[in-house]
Amino acid sequence: MSAPGEKVTIARKQKKLTQTELGDNVGTSRDIIGKYERDETKPSIEVAAKIADVLDCSLDYLIKDINPEDELAKKIEQLSPINKEYVMAVIEAFEAKEKLQGKR
User: Which residue ranges make up each domain of the chain?
Assistant: First the structure.
């Protein structure tokens, strides 16, 4: 599992933000964001919530040791049988598309 700082780094890069841009958006400096990403220090709950908001992810994702695949499986399991079938059909369609594109 990823450490909280690594999750911040991954989410920040997915949003194509620099440490400076993330810092500006949450009201702190690039140096502090770097310390969070290296797990040298932990943000306050308020700052962590701002980081999660800017990175468009949940606070739970950033701070808990959650396996995203397990969370997805839980969500799918809670769906009605027909909606589970729809989810599987969409997944199968994407798998077929990637196979055709030579990505699998």
Answer: 4-63, 68-100
Residue 1 has pLDDT above 60, yes or no: no
Interval 23-74: pLDDT, tens: 999 999 999 999 999 999 999 999 999 999 999 998 888 887 656 667 777 7
State the angle between helix axes of 30-37 and 19-26 in degrees (0 to 180), rounded to the nearest 10.
110
- As a whole number of angstroms, the distance between CA 50 and CA 35 comes to 16
Find out whether 61 and 49 touch, Cβ atoms under 8 Å.
no
User: CA 46, 52, 56, 58 torsion: positive or negative?
Assistant: negative
Class of 4-63 per CATH?
A: mainly alpha
- DSSP assignment of 44-84 equals -HHHHHHHHHHTTS-HHHHHS---HHHHHHHHHHTS-HHHH
